[in-house]
Design goal:
By secondary structure, the chain is mainly α. Helices cover about 75% and strands about 0% of the residues.
Length: about 450
């Protein structure tokens, strides 16, 4: 029998509609900025490689691999950020944690836009870039746990999947915003201007965005009304695991650890396929298939549009049918179609509209997993460890299967010459996720948060 311990767990509270909307917006805006930044780093990976990692005219592939190594380093610091800021959010409160991580993310991203290149300061440039990427990784690791906890804990009855889906939707918006900025700059600037100073603009735009996000988060109530309190079940649902000993007692470390590992398994397909089709694709299309920068970005925009279009409907559908049904459907879709869709993109005889449709469909399949995903993770952990637990599951999955996606795909394609590597990678990880997702209970969406 576990013994209740002092902490911020409260009796059930009714969330006012204004507080629910405020929590939704404040939680979403940080995700938008985080993924906008990670998107633009991926989209400008070839430019960044030339400015920071290949000063002596090394090969394009060599520079790209090094740039993606820096990209991956940031992801491996996400679990550290999830543990540190998750613990802070569980102990002190969601709002203070969210304020700190948005300040850290905004400051680090803005500094990348001001960073001298290798031509200016030599070997210090790539090291400074990597340090700033580490700070971004720490902040991003703390962002997800706090934001999803606030959004799902404040969700009205029967809408937890939809509220959680806004986290993923703002991911799509952030990636699309980054792609849009990249397309505009690539269209209005010459290649020399883009490599000289134009690549800095997207990073500097983070500063005003971060100030807006900070203001929204400071307007959250000091202790969110429903933070750490059980939420009401869906209409007609059962309040299993609400207030009481289960909600107010500290879970055993082994139990939380097992839940984190299971969460990683359920997340890995979403993480790998998402980065393969939504972020890594521009560099793959350029370095492997010889596409122009503009065409590669256009293809990525179409994939992200498919992703964005399916997220909110998938979250809402999961409130009716359950998280398991919708997420398994998405994982099976990607596992079955990743290679055929990639072959369409590779075939020079296929019309452009068909290639665009293939990328749109790939993005939509990822959205079926990403829509219900945040609520699914929130439902796996009790209030006392929710920020930490779901943040760690998300961060570890992203560190291994997203952060390494560009590095793995680029390196393996370069060594083997097999251009189907992205399809194999996405299909294999989604197949594993199907097995993990099948362990979900069919009525988790009807249960109150613990």
């Amino acid at each position: 029998m576990t013994t209740p311990v002092p902490g911020p767990v409260r009796p059930p509270a009714t969330v006012r509609p204004d507080d629910a909307r405020r929590a939704l917006v404040a939680g979403s805006v940080g995700n938008f900025i985080e993924w906008y930044e990670f998107g633009i780093y991926g989209y400008f990976a070839t430019v960044i490689a030339a400015q920071f990692f290949t000063p002596d005219g090394g090969s394009e592939v060599e520079g790209l691999v090094t740039a993606y190594a820096s990209f991956a380093v940031a992801f491996f610091f996400r679990p550290v950020g999830a543990a540190v800021f998750g613990r802070f959010g569980d102990r002190v409160g969601r709002r203070p944690a969210l304020v700190v991580v948005i300040c850290l993310m905004t400051g680090a991203t803005t500094m990348i836009g001001l960073l001298p290149t290798y031509a200016s300061i030599g070997a210090a440039a790539p090291w400074l870039l990597t340090l700033l990427r580490i700070l971004q990784g720490l902040s991003a690791g703390g962002e997800f746990g706090g934001a999803v906890s606030v959004m799902t804990e404040c969700a009205p009855p029967g809408r937890r999947g939809l509220y959680g889906a806004w986290q993923s939707f703002t991911v799509a918006l952030g990636l699309l915003a980054g792609a849009a900025v990249a397309v505009v700059l690539a269209s209005v600037l010459t290649a020399s201007q883009l490599h000289g100073w134009g690549w800095r603009v997207p990073f500097l735009l983070t500063l005003p965005l971060g100030l807006v996000a900070l203001r929204l988060r400071l307007r959250l109530p000091p202790d969110e009304p429903a933070a750490l309190a059980p939420s009401a079940p869906a209409p007609g649902g059962r309040a299993k695991g609400g207030a009481g000993p289960e909600g107010g007692a500290r879970p055993r470390p082994g139990e939380t650890g097992r839940a984190v590992v299971l969460g990683v398994g359920r997340m890995m397909g979403w993480s790998a396929a998402g980065y393969t089709f939504l972020v890594v694709m521009p560099s793959y299309l350029q370095s492997t298939l010889g596409a122009t920068f503009q065409r590669a970005l256009l293809g990525t925009v179409l994939a992200n549009l498919g992703f964005a279009a399916s997220i909110l409907p998938a979250g809402r559908l999961s409130d009716r049918l359950g998280r398991r049904t919708v997420m398994v459907a998405g994982a099976l879709l990607i596992a079955a179609l990743a290679l055929p869709l990639l072959h369409l993109v590779q075939d020079p005889g296929v019309p452009g509209y068909a290639k665009g449709a293939a990328l749109f469909a790939a993005g939509a399949g990822v959205g079926l997993m990403a829509g219900p995903g945040p609520a699914m993770l929130a439902e796996m952990f009790p209030a006392r460890v929710r920020c930490t637990g779901l943040g760690l599951a998300y961060a570890l999955s992203n560190a291994v299967f997203s952060g390494c996606a560009g590095l793995i795909i680029t390196e393996v394609v370069a060594r083997t010459g097999n251009v189907d590597v992205p399809g194999y990678y996405a299909a294999a990880t989604c197949a594993v996720s199907v097995a993990a997702l099948l362990t979900l209970r069919g009525d988790d969406h009807e249960r109150a948060l613990r």
